[in-house]
Amino acid sequence: MIHVDEEYSAEDPEPVFPYRYVKTKVNVSPEGEYDILSEELGRGTFGTVYLCKERATGMGFAAKFVTCERKEDRRNMEREIDIMSGLHHSRIIQLYDAFDDGKTMCIVLELILGGELFDRVIDDEFVLTEKSCTAFMRQIVDGVGYIHSQNIIHLDLKPENILCLSKTGNRIKIIDFGMARRYDPKKKLQVLFGTPEFTAPEVVNFDEIKFFTDMWSLGVICYVLLSGYSPFVGDTDLDTMTNVTLAQWDFKEEAFANISNEAKDFIKNLLIKDGTKRMTAAQALEHPWLKKLASTTDLSGNKAKLKRYVIKKRWIKAVNTIIALRRMGAKIDCNLV
Ligand code: ADP
Hints:
The chain contains eleven helices and ten strands. The chain is of the alpha+beta class. It folds into two domains: 24-110, Phosphorylase Kinase, domain 1 (2-Layer Sandwich); 117-302, Transferase(Phosphotransferase) domain 1 (Transferase(Phosphotransferase), domain 1), CATH 1.10.510.10. It has a six-stranded mixed sheet with strand order 1-5-6-4-3-2, with helices on one face. It has a two-stranded antiparallel sheet with strand order 7-10. A hairpin with a 5-residue loop joins strand 3 and strand 4. Helix 3 runs antiparallel to helix 5 (212-227) and helix 5 packs across helix 11. The longest helix is centred in the last third of the chain and has 37 residues, at 300-336. The structure holds adenosine-5'-diphosphate. Adenosine-5'-diphosphate binds at residues 41-47, 49, 62, 64, 93, 109-112, 116, 160-161, 175-176, 178. The site of adenosine-5'-diphosphate has 21 residues, from strand 2, strand 4 and strand 6. ATP binds at residue 64. This is Protein kinase domain-containing protein. One of its GO terms (molecular function) is ATP binding. Residues 35-290 form the Protein kinase domain. InterPro entries: Kinase-like_dom_sf (IPR011009), Prot_kinase_dom (IPR000719), Protein_kinase_ATP_BS (IPR017441), Ser/Thr_kinase_AS (IPR008271).
């Protein structure tokens, strides 16, 4: 059994490579310097991530490729590179290199091999307790606090974007700055994207977004992690968005009966419709649930629910990928005719 309860901060590891500022190599393809291996590490909304090896050093990295057919795709990647190259923190994925060969852009990232947070939590060997949840949440809040201190809003915080460093340790890193934005107090920032289940009401309502928008997502992540239930998810994205705009939610009795008042208070202070009333990252780190030693009661019933939730998600993702590939196939057929 794996108990994730050792203190993570005592043994903060050195970065695998010194922090660096990255400038995109234009009209250059990564194959000149890296062996891109066929092993796919993951697929996201925009890109596919492969294992790769730098020839000069023999070091392993993750290479994310995004096809930039539209100007907008390139602009988005350039923004992601610009934002990432200024974020140097142990809870944040580090950028190593960037390429633009004219058609495809590639970013070379620190390699993380422990898999997505929820996959790790549902592992048969893993013991889900409030204490293990606080070990993860503390690091996530710490990372988000750093991002905010650099004037960046992540805007796509969700379980898939929290990776574990290893299959057995408790360290995590926040990934995917594809939707992140720099905050400018002189400009009103509104966006219409994100993942409905984890997105704040102000995004769905196309109201002004700020750092507090990320704090809502942390509330949803924490709710799901502790209970295996997702507070706003509906049958369709539209249903989910309606639930989010209403911002009405409660603690599902069967899942929260064994959860402490501190944990519930932590979530209550994040899932508030009025963003200005939500805890900031600094306040969340000072919340008693994260400050004190949390309960070690085994939450195996909730873990079973979380497992069902993760498996359902995997199915939805697989079906969507097949639909997308079929669409691409149809396009190729048309081109061939
Ligand atoms: P997108 O911007 O297209 O959504 P992501 O950056 O979220 O793409 O990456 C997609 C998936 O690839 C992630 O969910 C994760 O499983 C995997 N991945 C991303 N970065 C890394 C990394 N540095 N190391 C290992 N796997 C990664």
